[in-house]
Design a protein that fits this description.
Elements (H helix, E strand, L loop, with lengths): L9 H10 L5 E3 H7 L9 E5 L4 H7 L4 E4 L5 E6 L2 E5 L8 H4 L3 E5 L2 E5 L2 H11 L9 H11 L5 H10 L3 H20 L6
Helix pairs in contact: 2-6, 5-6, 5-8, 7-8
Length: about 190
């Protein structure tokens, strides 16, 4: 028997995470929107530290839970929201937490991952419309909109991301995009 799902707001999700003392931040598409992407949002992705997986599911008993082998939550799904306890390639660690920014999303001021982490994450993922994603579209929009990027921080973060080869390939592509953007538009014959 299916039980009706309660539709939570971003404000309620923020309240529960904040009340529990869990560091959290919006990332992916909603963060890209905060940093200049203009495409319509389909959901809000939230990142918490991987170590918070054990507490995450208890905060949202109405959620669908994806569990790790140790029983902790890898992530939870709520209508319109995915909350992930760490990512295979990146975690919300102390370096990222120290650089969180605050932006208004859906009428709520929320912590957002640093633009460099969001750009790097989307570049590593590199998914396109063929799978219903907009990673490179979002990267281009963020690079075009943001007045400055801390490239040294992004390089350090790429060194910590796994798999390292994939992160380094993404970083090289980002560096090329940066040079192309600085050179301005070119005409192709």
């Amino acid at each position: 028997m299916n039980q009706p799902q309660t539709i939570l707001t971003l404000a309620e999700i923020a309240r529960r995470l904040d009340h529990a003392g869990i560091t959290w931040a919006v990332f992916a598409g909603a963060a890209a929107a905060a940093y200049g992407a203009t495409r319509p949002l389909t959901d809000v992705d939230i990142l918490v530290p991987a170590a918070e997986g054990k507490r995450l599911a208890a905060l949202f008993p109405e959620a669908q839970v994806d569990r790790r082998e140790d029983g902790s939550a890898r992530g939870i799904q709520l209508p319109g929201f995915d909350i992930l306890a760490g990512l295979t390639i990146m975690d919300l660690d102390t370096r990222m937490a120290a650089r969180l920014q605050h932006h208004e999303i859906a009428g709520v001021t929320v912590p957002v991952v640093p633009p460099e982490d969001n750009i790097l994450l989307k570049a590593i993922m590199g998914r396109g419309p063929e799978v219903g994603k907009h990673d490179w579209e979002d990267v281009r929009a963020m690079l075009a909109h943001l007045p400055s990027i801390d490239w040294e921080y992004m390089r350090r973060r790429a060194d910590a991301c796994g798999p390292r080869q994939r992160a380094q390939q993404a970083l090289r592509r980002l560096e090329r995009m940066r040079l192309e953007t600085a050179a301005g538009p070119t005409s192709e014959a």
